[in-house]
């Protein structure tokens, strides 16, 4: 996570105003480099880092192909049943809760 944090800080010094963050999913030919994918612990660390940096930075962090980010963010901020969860989709929130052993 140190490399990602360093990259975000470097971008802040340059005046970057938005980041599009893609999550590598090893499917198809990506199966050959499965060891480079984040495990569940690293993925949780990434979600937490992005949430923390979104509050600290002026830039906008835009997670792409990471639907569990929004469910995680809302859950961490105590927004469990609000309108925003319905915008993201109840299935995303349900998937995140199931992955983390929550009801």
Q: What key attributes describe this structure?
A:
2 strands, single chain, two-stranded parallel ribbon, globular, mainly alpha, 2 domains, 103 residues
Question: How would you sum up this structure, described in words?
Answer:
The protein contains five helices and two strands; from the N terminus they run αβαβααα. By secondary structure, the chain is mainly alpha-helical. It has two domains: 65 residues, no CATH class; 37 residues, no CATH class. Strand 1, helix 2 and strand 2 form a beta-alpha-beta unit. Helix 3 packs across helix 5. The longest helix is centred in the middle third of the chain and has 17 residues. The two termini are 29 Å apart. About 7% of the residues have low confidence.
Describe, in short, the structure shown.
This protein has 103 residues and is mostly helical. The chain is built from 5 helices and 2 strands.
Q: Based on Cα principal axes, name the global outline.
A: globular
Count of discrete structural domains: 2
Beta-strand portion reads 5-15%
- Radius of gyration based on Cα positions: 15 Å
Secondary structure class reads mainly alpha
Order of adjacent strands in the largest pleated sheet: 1-2
Q: What series of H and E elements makes up the topology?
A: HEHEHHH
Uncertain runs: 84-90
How many alpha or pi helices?
5
Biggest β-sheet: count, sense, barrel? 2 strands, parallel
Roughly what is the average pLDDT, rounded to an integer? Answer: 77
Number of strands: 2
Helix share bin = 40-55%
Q: Ends: how far apart?
A: 29 Å
